Amino acid sequence: MTKMKTNRxxxxxxxxxxxxxxxxxxxxxxxxxxxxxxxxKASPRAIYSxxxxxxxxxxxxxxxxxxxxxxxxxxxxxxxxLARNAPYSRAAKASLMVGxxxxxxxxxxxxxxxxxxxxxxxxxxxxxxxxxxTGEPLKISVSHIGDITTVLPEPNDAFRAxxxxxxxxRQASNASQDPxxx
Length: 182
What we know:
This protein is of the alpha+beta class. It has a domain at 33-92 and 108-129 and 157-173. Helices cover 35% and strands 27% of the residues.
């Protein structure tokens, strides 16, 4: 092998090594839960998964601690989808399943202008919440739309703060409804 060929091969290997090192140093896109803009990060009442290359989810907690959820039908950013005008929604029959558990039949709201489904039922939204906790695939079959399958990001600090906020709200709501002992 000539000295020139050796130098070229060394240059190629060096270029590849530098490229790999630079790529490894770049931050990876973190598919994660985030508090909705304007929410107190220590006690958020709304969090969302920040994926743009797969379905995103939004979980909200009412003053009584009950959950609701939204999921994009197609891969999209939820904040961008919800910023668009969506004057029309309709009810749709759906079947929701987490992992291999039995499917739950429910009715959801489909908002076609932004390709989002909304589950206002606490028990259905709790299934979405539990899919994140367990890491199991969330499968939703919606009439006239088709099947949606996604894996939500694992719980992080924002998710745990959201869970604590909802639990405290639910406990306070239940305590205010309990009859006072005399």
